[in-house]
Specification:
globular; 5-stranded antiparallel sheet; alpha+beta
């Protein structure tokens, strides 16, 4: 039997979260000057097991540019039919992920991600997201009979500096309308597989799913800013590997890094919605600690000694604070942040500046 109460909670909490996202018209981002833009697609769908029990009401043409909080109006009529079903269904929404193909020249090789990629010079980020979803997975996001554009996360995420400029990523959100398995055509050179994960699993992952990533080779960010580059070079030149927390997904894939950051940012709104409701199933799991303290990163160095230990502590703390500032939607800076910033500036004045 369908757990109607749990599904109603899932719908209500997600809609409350979307109502907290502070925008009405989704901005469009382009490559500008030294700013390089990427975009990805977060695609939601209704559990295909409900295909005989749930139907959307007619979607108005104007809905294609509506903000996220219109989701409830879209599913309201269809939900009324759920009480009649006898199917054994435990969740309502699912999120699509891809696993990138193995490629030694891709810093995100084999990682779990959302479909997406870099803007062409003549594109905005929404156009790029639609094109990349088609090229990577054969999905026709521009087809209004199959997908609705709900909006985007209200932040253009700064990722890292590159020789061509600062790299940003926006997250565009779509809802799949047919409650079924839409065939995908994977570009084998870019995508290894495509799969769906219940939103409920991500909201309340098992404690055993939280493990450390395998050590991975750090690729240090490059920058044309001489001062910034010198600081990065000093603190990270001897780094061998890094590792961080990850979630193990139901089929064994590891969700971590940038895409995990997008999920954390999105779930920050959901958690605040839960705080205003009677739903409490997220409050006792490790995701809460990660949301509060940021995405911890651990580094291993090729050298040893007191100096290396100090650099390791400073590097890890700076990275943690940067990620926390990057992926949290409710900013709060502790005294540690300002102490570390002061320490780095003092080091620059005493050590690096005299050598420039």
């Amino acid at each position: 039997m369908i757990d109607n109460e749990l599904i109603q909670e899932e719908i209500n909490v997600l809609n409350q979260a979307m109502n907290m996202i502070p925008f009405t018209d989704a901005p469009l981002y382009r490559n500008e000057g030294m700013k390089r833009q990427c975009s990805v697609c977060m695609i939601l769908r209704i559990n295909p097991e409900l295909k005989e029990s749930f139907q959307f009401e007619k979607v108005p043409e104007s809905f294609n540019q509506s903000p996220l909080n219109r989701l409830a109006n879209l599913i309201k009529q269809g939900y009324k039919s759920l009480a009649k079903t006898k199917e054994d269904v435990k969740h309502f929404f699912e999120i699509m992920f891809i696993q990138r193909a193995e490629n030694p020249n891709d810093r995100h090789s084999s990682q779990v991600a959302f479909p997406g990629g870099k803007n062409e010079d003549n594109e905005d980020d929404l156009m790029a997201a639609v094109r990349e979803a088609d090229e990577e997975c054969g999905l026709k996001l521009e087809d209004r009979s199959q997908y609705v554009f709900l909006g985007k996360l209200p932040k253009n995420f700064f990722v890292y500096p590159t020789p061509k400029g600062k790299l940003y990523v926006s997250v565009n959100i779509f809802l799949q309308l047919p409650i079924t398995q839409i065939p995908v055509t994977l570009n084998a050179s870019e995508v290894h597989s495509c799969f769906w994960v219940p939103l409920r699993y991500l909201l309340n992952p098992p404690i055993t799913s939280f493990v450390h990533t395998k050590p991975y080779k750090m690729r240090l960010p490059q920058s044309k800013n001489k001062i910034l580059f010198k600081l990065i070079e000093f603190f990270t030149s001897d780094v061998e590997n890094g590792y961080m927390w990850q979630i193990t997904l139901p089929e064994g894939q590891a969700l971590w890094g940038l895409t995990f950051g997008f999920i954390l940012y999105f779930f920050g709104f959901i958690r605040r919605a839960m705080d205003k409701s009677e739903v409490r199933y997220i409050r006792a799991n490790p995701l809460d600690q990660i949301l509060d303290k940021g995405m911890r990163t651990y580094l291993t160095y090729s050298t040893k000694g007191v100096g290396t230990t100090i650099r390791k502590i400073v590097s890890e703390k700076m990275y943690d604070l940067y990620r926390q500032d990057q992926f949290r939607n409710k900013k709060s800076r502790s005294s540690k942040y300002f102490i570390i910033i002061f320490g780095v500036l003092l080091f620059y004045m005493l050590y690096i500046r005299p050598r420039l």
